[in-house]
Amino acid sequence: MGNCQATQVTAAVVVQHPGKDGKVDKMYLSVQANEVMRSNPGHYVALVVESPNVSGNVVVKQLKLLKPTDMLHIGHVYRLITFEGF
Length: 86
Fold this sequence. Notes:
By secondary structure, the chain is of the alpha+beta class. It is about 20% helix and about 40% strand.
């Protein structure tokens, strides 16, 4: 049964909230970025892109800012961002 739980975790759109509280939203179907932005005013949605470093140990994270019409797909991790923090 442990494998069933692992499958359920990866079969979701994961949206990380900014801040230290570590809040995470999970959606179990693809949605448009504007739907997430509408429910979180003042925030934009970015795709979290991870790639291994040259040594293969450290993961380098990059954020790709999405347009409001872009789809958030199951199995990917997204982050809410604001420009106030920059």
